[in-house]
Amino acid sequence: MPSPSPFVCSACRQSARILRTSNAFSKRRYTRPTFAPKPTLDLKHIRQNPGLYKQNCLDRNYAPYAENGWRILELHEQVVAQQREAVELRRRNNVLGRELKKSDGGDHRARMLEEARALKGKLAEFEGREKLAQDEMEKLALELPNLSSQHTPVGSEPAVLGHINGNTPPTGKGNRSHVDIGRSLDLLDFEASATTSGWGFYFLKNEAALLEQALIQFSLSVALAQGWKILTPPSLIYSHIASATGFLPRDQNGETQIYALAQPQNQTQDAKASAAGLVLAGTAEIPFAGSQANKTLLSTSLPLKVIGPSRCYRAEAGARGMDTKGLYRVHEFTKVEMFAWTSPPSTSRQTPSALDSDFEGGFEGGFDTAEDAGGAESQADVVFEEMISIQTEILTSLGLHARVLEMPTTDLGASATRKIDIEAYFPSRTAIDDGYGEVTSASICTDYQARRLNTKVKFADNGGARSEDPTEERGGANRGGIRRGGGTAFAHTVNGTAMAIPRILAALLENGWDEVSGTVVVPGVLRKWMPGGLGRIGGGRV
Asked: What is the pTM assigned to this prediction?
């Protein structure tokens, strides 16, 4: 841990030490290489609203960081005081310089030279202390999660916004688990994967493997029809990119989030210390977001929307039990992810409105997305709605009953300001959350990721475009600071799941199971990608 800033009192240093000792997972587990994007954080907004950031941390289960805003304010005030003193020292140094030019020598000149050298040393010391303080303030700011939206319920209980394919779960489905169904139809093999890889892995066999590919193609087709561009990402990602997107080695609950790759043993210690570490991507959101790091996007090209399939790796598969049985929570899986870069909003504050959006395809309900009191939506809000409409269309077409939830503060990841989950019904899980389990998620991240990845938006100087200087610190709930004319701003990002293969596959097996015939019905929208238009699994092989 770096030495505490010389501007912090001993009591504050002790408090910080206790907080960090009790939360070792908060430490950055990587070295930021020289080519990594340099974050530009809104320290001014944090200083102006330390109480807001404290309450936000408490609401989001980030209690160890609740005092970060106040410590940043304290450091800043002490830096300002030091800078005032430095101004006086520079003035005295300038006076000495003028007098030395006029001096002919003697003891008086010697004393002035000695005083000038002392002033120079003191100023250098001040500059060093200021650099340490700035580094400490940045580190404290990086630990803070994004501010929660006004739509987000405070606490741990989500708000039900509506349902897909009916308001109540289907009846007469029985409660047979997809694990039993998969084994009986020779679709799943957990024993072989336990031998090769350990618990939390699986083999998909026969029609299950074909269904995986059909689900990928179907979800891509829905998004491509709405103008999304397909992009397939790498699975190995730099550690600093994962951290910038909000995926830390451990989350706010202390659970391991990501797999890190060991560095080659033949490297020297210096090489290991300076190398950029690699991790396995837990979601395509990470490489997608990183693909535009250190880039400036034209506002006329936004929103930039991409979708793509990838393998995902999650270390936090959880303890064994009903909640993690079979395909529901695994370490490795295929997912189709949506990601978008949008222009920042034109106003500085989000306020709820009465605007409801009823989605086609069976979503009975809606949610507020208006950004200001006038009811205008931001570009991120529009894309957010579109993502959820795609998720809704997919689940509706697959015939799965589900509920749509506005997720509470304790369920938001570090980068999200707002998150909506959709939970499908699993007949075998009625003892857990009435049978519902998450299958998709969508989040608005405002400029949290873009500030850490240095992804900007450039506006044309047409006399009416909105823009801002990202080097200027901003204020307001969304810290808008918008001005007219050309310029740049940080992009806003949005992400959402189009298809989480294992959970959807499990839901299809359980909901499509026919006890009488011992077969599983394949949804009609998938049959075009199944050999021979296969409509049922069981009673023969492809």
From this structure: 0.83
